[in-house]
Specification:
This protein is an all-alpha fold and about 70 residues long. About 65% of the residues lie in helices and about 0% in strands. The two termini are about 40 Å apart.
Length: about 70
Amino acid sequence: MTQASLAPQVVDWTAAAQIAGRLAPPGPQAPREELAALVSGLRDAAGDAVGHVLETTRMLPPAVRATH
């Protein structure tokens, strides 16, 4: 056992999920094809965002940083 597994849990995640399920409204309903297209669009946008974030923050990805 690790030290982290011996520490008491601050949040009861099971209870939190049950409460959230009762309080939060259900998500939007859409045909499977529409949802697949939305997920694909989000994945494309996430891929496109990488370059913008790196340029804006002037950060280097781990693979590039290892060679410097």
